[in-house]
Amino acid sequence: MKYGIVLFPSKKLQDIANSYRKRYDPNYALIPPHLTLRTPFESSEEDIGKVVAHLRELSKELKPIRLKITKFSSFAPVNNVIYMKAEPTAELTELHEKMYSGVLEDKPEYAFVPHVTIAQNLSDDEHSDVLGTLKMRDATHEEIIDRFHLLYQLDNGSWTVYETFILGV
User: Fold this and answer.
1) What's the number of CA atoms in the CB half-sphere (13 Å) around residue 23?
2) Which CATH number belongs to the domain containing residue 158 in this structure?
3) What's this model's pTM, rounded to 2 decimal places?
4) Strand-pair partners of 144
């Protein structure tokens, strides 16, 4: 089964992201706005218990983190993804790195660029138009996040929470 690890921002930030995602993100109905801590990985039913135990231990060691959204940005020209950029704080980077340790030991596929995706699979022209418009808007937002979530993917491609982990508890 496919699993992933994410942070869900507050309803306020999710509402802002969804106002764009409804129109520009084909994955809008599959998963709420999120910040990916660990890209999707495969695990068996037998092994997921070890992953959960590991994540429980990590959550006790780590403190709640400050999520600071600073602007709208893009991964272009690599791909036409537009996102809300999160400041890569030491706490957020540490949380990401811990998701690739212990029983989850692996090398991340990409450099960690903390973000909340709001648009993807756009044509070059649409990407340019949407990004140009968004860059004129203020994206500043700050909040404290005190939990992360282990998700699993259903047969229809949507993601649902397997377990939630409170930071610092």
Assistant:
1) 8
2) 3.90.1140.10
3) 0.94
4) 66
List Cβ<8 Å contacts ≥24 apart for 120-127.
120/24, 120/25, 120/26, 120/27, 120/79, 120/80, 120/81, 120/82, 121/26, 121/80, 122/24, 122/80, 122/82, 123/80, 124/80, 126/24, 126/80, 127/74, 127/76, 127/80, 127/82
Distance CA 40, CA 36 (A): 9
115 included as an active-site residue: yes
pLDDT at 148: 98
| Domain around 52 | 2-166
- Specify whether 141 is catalytic: no
- Residue 22 is inside which H or E element, if any? helix 11-24
Domain count, the chain: 1
Q: Which of 34, 127, 141, 149 is catalytic?
A: 34
Q: Can you tell me the distance from the alpha carbon of 45 to that of 50, in angstroms, rounded to the nearest whole number? A: 10
Q: Which of 54, 96, 115, 141 is catalytic?
A: 115
Residue 169 has pLDDT above 90, yes or no: no
Q: Report pLDDT for 39.
A: 94
Burial of 31 per CB tally in 10 Å (0-12, 13-18, 19+): buried
The amino acid occupying position 37 is L
Q: What percent of the chain has pLDDT over 90?
A: 97
- Average model confidence (pLDDT) across the chain: 96
